[in-house]
User: What shape does this take?
Amino acid sequence: MTAILIVGGAGFIGSHTAKAAAEAGLAPVVFDNLSSGHEWALRWGVFERGDLADQASIVAAIRRHDVKAVVQFAGFIEVGESVRNPSKYLRGNLVNTLNLLDAMVETGVRDIVFSSTAAVYGVPAHVPIREDHPLVPVNPYGESKLAVERALAAYETAHGLRWAALRYFNAAGCDPDGQIGEAHAPESHLIPLAIAAALGQRGPLQVFGTDYPTPDGTAVRDYVHVLDLADAHLLALRHLAQDRGSFAANLGTGRGHSVSEVIAAIERLSGRPVPRTLAPRRAGDPPMLVADPTKASELLGWRPRHPDLDTIVSHAWAWHGKQPSRAS
Assistant: This one.
């Protein structure tokens, strides 16, 4: 079986991708320092505990398992924290990924799929957002991801690396088998926060902004199921292995849902109210973020299998409801 190094494979999207890779007949090697990942998510492949700050440990893991390709999920994801502590994000997301790229060059591994973000676009000039939209991130988190994308292009020129940068919109949902799910500490994603509020595991949900120029006044986002994200990573690996060219592409459904619509879906599907309070808009939060996923469809043949909000919410509710200690 072909071994792939899944960096950050004990995290939310990484663990779902490890499962998908194993089911596809690949041999996932999870490389994670468990600073934000979870031991209970280590269910597929082999585990190598290591840190991207230690390039020698990356090289050792690649050689020990004869790794042929890399998927890079590891990094920090809190936008607000990135504004307060830019060094953490630039060092953790950019410098550490450069260590990974250097380890790939040293060991002769050519293919990498990188977990990027819609934050590279900043406040969109128009929606849906295509990949040719100007790249003007408005926070250090987005800057760090864009810097990695540019580094990937530079390493391709210098060393022949082949790369895919997958720009996620709002990752959501959980494994419908109930084996793994979403748990961040602290949690910042709307759906798990709203579910935790409905389950009484936390205080009321804060709704930031009810005066946006959207149909109901709350912010609109494109929610994409984590299983569909995992599928896209495997398709991107296949694309690179066939030497069909490096690329950046959006991953989203092309349909936006407002905060109020998400809350209503949770209440409707669970039969429980979501306690909430209203708060002012957060600085830098655009009214709408919706992907144009055409490029991923055309390049990879990728189409979301779980595009509807009710499916995303029901899978998340099922997992969080059974795992109260992991949902807060």
The mean pLDDT is 95. DSSP finds eleven helices and 14 strands in the chain.
